[in-house]
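Predict fold of Nucleoside 2-deoxyribosyltransferase; 165 aa.
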Amino acid sequence: MISPTAKIYLGSPFYTDAERERVPKAKELLAKNPTVLRVHFPFDQDFTDPEEVNPQVGGIRSMTWRVGTYQNDLTGMVNATCGVFLYDMDRIDDGSAFEIGFMRALHKPVVLVPFTEKKEPEKVMNLMLAQGVTTIIDGNSEFDQLANFDFNAVPAKPVTGYKII
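Predicted 3D structure, encoded as tokens:
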């Protein structure tokens, strides 16, 4: 019998329409997965600084917002049993890279789901990212596998098919 024990930290950049559109699909797939107990998506726990006025104007956020957001994200990763990262290979995101490294430093498995909008992409990945993840599930062709992946065991599937730099 399969028991839902996995607590997923779902990481993703959230800057473009394409990046934002992937998240509900990932949540839907993970909700169907019989091994997943819960999913933590940082933007669902977004911290608000009540004293911040017009936070989106100028791109500079308050120190209170930055500290609260950072701490909420760290807590989400510490409480998770596994990370799932919707990784945009066309617009590398430092935040996602940090979170992947942080989870691996905590000795937690990471499932990388890379996406590209390029028709004929040259498949290139940084060594630290390629070696740092436990499993790779191609976002463009295998995204639906999140619905039945065994997050209780998180079997390794190393990155292959990429030029590693």
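The two ends are 42 Å apart (CA to CA).
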